[in-house]
Amino acid sequence: MSFFQKIAKQNLLKPAAVLALALLFIWGKTNAQAPIQLRLLPLDGDNVFIKKNIKHGTVFADSTLIFNELKTVIAQLQAQSYLEASVDSTHRQDSILTAWLHVGPSYEWASLRNGNVPDDLLNRSGFRTKLFNGKPLRFTEIQKLQERLLQEAENTGFPFAKIQIDSLSWPPINLKSEIVYLQSEIKTTQVEAKLFLTPGPLVLFDSLVVVGDAKISMNYLRQYLGIHEGEPYSRQQVLRIRQRVRELPFLQEKKNALVSFRGGTANLRLFLEKKKASRFDFLIGVLPDNGRVEQKLLITGTFNAEFQNQFGLGERIYASFERLRPQTQRLEVAFSYPYMLQLPFGVDLKFNQYRRDSTYTDVIGEFGVQYLFEGGNYLKAFWNTTASNLISVDTVAIRQGRFPVSSMCATGPSA
Question: What is the domain partition of the chain in residue ranges?
């Protein structure tokens, strides 16, 4: 038994009223589910212009989706320099909703010139007057230009700068242009404007505070991050902190850096923790020493150690020793120390010794000076010395034309 039959049985409504109510319910349900078709008609221009310049849907489930689509249509027109575009009116008949559009004239730049923005700031942002003169006026391009100018200002000590377009004017058109203007259905309007900068206060980097258990020199941290006390604030430098810290093997960031501005200064708080980067491993074995008359055991093995930032200066110490054969051993030692004397210079030392039985010994030494850039990049000048010494000479082999082979002819592990 249906809902309407129950109502009739209980004599709450007369049969005719029940039938009318049922038909109204069915019609409303069917009408709510019927799709709605959107039709666009321009008040100025023609349908060809609409089809050519606008992409939009035609069938929608309800009117809410249609009005959202109309917002998208207007945004498309305004992005194409039709800044006055709007929906003039709408009318729905059955399943068709008609929207009349006011397109308006197409705006273009007569000129966009500099008002008071410093020339170096404009040049770094890529601004050129010829890129705008006679070109369509699009909000997206203006927004991108303003964003670039603001970024340059933020990176040169002015984080509170504002960029605005001012001195708008419509230059007069000549008679020939006026005739074309009046005859065209979609007109063109030229605009002149100037760029103005409100820089705000100059902000300089001040204190740098580390919160956490990280043991690190403030000199190393400032040099590595490129953040120096008394230099202009740079938002770009602050945004790079996370990536720069990730590149360090002995530090990790607990959370994002915090910047506070006060009295023309920017104070940085870094939340850093130490990360295990040092390693120490060794392997020991025993072999019978067949070279002696009395059978004894020969101790062999390898030893590797690498220490990172043990003294909080960003230094690296590496040592490796290997002895897998009797009377054959390899020793490697390396040491690097960045930012000596609070300067962007560091030292890099390496020592490598290889001894083969009782035949020869190779010694390689290297001393380098690094000029360090931000983020760990550097240029290096070094002095290298190599020496190979014979411990004993096999005269019989030399007479047969066989000469000792140095380890320098082969590759080996490097620090």
Answer: 3-102, 106-198, 204-274, 279-409
